[in-house]
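re the bet — no i am not wrong, look at it urself. input seq straight from the record:
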Amino acid sequence: MGVSKQVFIEASEQAITVAEAEEKHRQEQMLHLQAERAKEAEARLAEQEKSAKRQKIFLVAVSTALVVAVGVSAVAFNQWQRAEKITEGQIQVLGRLSLILAKSNRGFEVLIEGIRARGLLKKLRTEKLELKEPISRTLQTVIYQEGFRERNRLIGHEDIVWSVAFSPDGKTIASASLDNTVRLWNQQGEPINILQGHRDRVWSVAFSPDGNTIASASEDKTVRLWNQQGEAINILQGHQDRVWSVAFSPDGNTIASASWDNTVRLWNLQGELLHTIQDHQDRVKSVAFSPDGKTIASASWDNTVRLWNLQGELLHTIQDHQDVVNSVEFSPDGKTIASASWDKTVRLWNQQGELLHTLQGHQKAVNSVAFSPDGKTIASASTDNTVILWNLEDLTLDSLMQEACDWVKDYLKHNAPESDKSLCDDVAQ
């Protein structure tokens, strides 16, 4: 038993020693493995830090490049803006100079400065109407000025003559006066008839398309119909204030009247009221039919031109004028509407109410506007005591440039300074 016990004790001690050695070895392996993992983690962390630094450097570089690019663009944009302003200033100076030269009857110099201004206009990236129009207007004054002389004078009215109209065949002239009468004249200025019946001033007169009927609009709130023998045919009554304008439809079956009662009224030849149009907010000064008879235009002191169908339904409201609109007229082809205003302008529109041109040249209110039968010329009458004729075929600056360059070509070729010889090189002839 003693020996066995001793053997057991020794075996146990050896087992404990072996177990301790194995545990120590296992712990050493674990520590080594943890150390390896720690190194790997440190390596990965270091690589991530390097990558983050590289990304940060890249972002800084990109941001710097963007800032520089934006800065360069801003500088370039500011320089472009300054250059545009300088060019615009030069154009305005040339425009004013051209106007001064035109008023001094120095037409040749007007053409030269106008051509020079046009060259500067082409340098602008965007076309500006407020710079272009004064140059076009001054060139028109020089290129299309013509001599007019009085042919005859019709004397007989006892007060202001407010309206005049030709018969469709051109053989008869009708004049409406504040002496309460309409007078008929032949082409030689000889009186044919006096139409008497209105109890107050007569503001407007018009011939029917066949020339057989004359309509007159009066302060007495009526429209009267007459034949050319001076006989009264009918009286159209219904307006509540003076009737300022009257017009026949192209087929002659409808009459439109415009009144200070803010309305336009449509009538048949029997004097029956067809429609009352009453959307205007102030006096209606003028009314006109389109050549196809489908559209009516009215001009009002509410600063608008309005377009209607024959049922009196509103089609478009044109409201770009800055003051009272006195007169409205359709071109013979019906594509263009002209309006005359106290804002000193004549404006041209299409039937959708879009502005085509603004004709500036009058120094005071424009009272009336009319197209020539061929539609190529507009006449406008103003309180500044002038009638201006506008050539619609040559309203574009390019057309005016062609005329101007043709006019001064010999000067540019033989006598102009070297700096001016090429002014017309890019103008098509």
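see?? Residues 161-392 form a domain with the Methylamine Dehydrogenase; Chain H fold (CATH 2.130.10.10). told u. also The first strand starts at residue 161 and ends at 166. so pay up
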